[in-house]
Amino acid sequence: MRKTVKVGFILLVLGVLLAIFGIANQGLQTVYWANHRFRIAHQTTQTYHPKTIKSLTLATNLKVTVKSGNTATIKVTTNAIAAKKPRVTIKTGQVIIKSKVPEDISMVGFNLQPLATPRIVITVPRQTHLTKLTTTTDQGAVQLNDLTIKQLTLNNYGATRLRNVTTTKPLVAKPTSRLQLTNVTASSLKLTNSDARTAIANSHFQQQQSSLTTVSGAITISQTTFKQAQIKSGTGNITLSANQVQNKLTVTNRHGQIKAKVPRNTGIQATSTSGSLHIFNWHGHHHYRYRPNATSQYQLTTDTGRIAVSAN
Q1: The CATH classification of domain 45-102+114-159, taken from the options 2.115.10.20, 1.10.10.60, 2.160.20.120, 3.30.870.10
Q2: Which parts of the sequence belong to the DUF4097 domain (predicted)?
Q3: 3-class SS at 105?
Q4: Quick check: 227 and 243 in contact, CB under 8 A?
Q5: Contact (CB, 8 A) for 136 and 156
Q6: pLDDT at 58
Q7: What is the rounded CA–CA span in Å between residue 130 and residue 304?
Q8: Do β-strands 73-79 and 119-125 pair in parallel, antiparallel, or remain unpaired?
Q9: Residue 275 CB: number of other CB atoms within 10 A?
Q10: Predicted confidence (pLDDT) per residue in 64-92, tens digit
Q11: Average pLDDT estimate for 37-47
């Protein structure tokens, strides 16, 4: 009996030692089931060094960040769980990144050192003006920071965030997820979506008329300048705060709420079929007109929603 215990103890110690050795040599890895077989989740990082980056076309489900920096680089971090390795094509400064949506998988293992989040980070040299940046319907989340782009078109399905971005042409956006613009400058904004939430702050669209259309997505705009704009929504709430409108801002919201904070010298024309109107200190229904000869005009219309206007 004592001999059996000793043998068991020795085997236990040996097993522990072998386990430690295996873990130290990456023997403990994430295992997943895909395409009718077990696979080990391998993580890879590859960095490309293009001579220059002139334009970008993004069509990958990986999250992409494009930012300014010292040198042109494209860093791709992937693992077998999240996606297949994207294909990066670079030709005379034209960069195209593509990858397919990953197959369905089932996790069956674990890892003491979790895999890094799959992503692509593209660095554009400072003072570089991109001729074009386009995201396709295959593209996931996108973040753009500190960039100047001649033509910018956003069609991706993932969340989209722009900060300190300037484009000389109209900014065209058709997001299916959240859109956030902070300190963005364009000749105008052309936004179309079904239910994506839109937040715009400290931005400038002063050369042409802008248009924002959504079915049910909420729109929040603050401290932003428009030459002229039209905003249309079916049921999403629209919130406007401390914006500058050079000519006229037209807002039509069939069933959602319109809430605006404006300077007292702004002209207001509010119309509601069956909703309520609250314009500064006036409350009522159907129609109200305030300062019709003012340079900056807000024309607000709703069927059943509520319109509320207060002073900044």
Answers
A1: 2.160.20.120
A2: 54-309
A3: coil
A4: no
A5: yes
A6: 97
A7: 45
A8: antiparallel
A9: 21
A10: 999 999 999 999 998 755 456 899 999 99
A11: 72
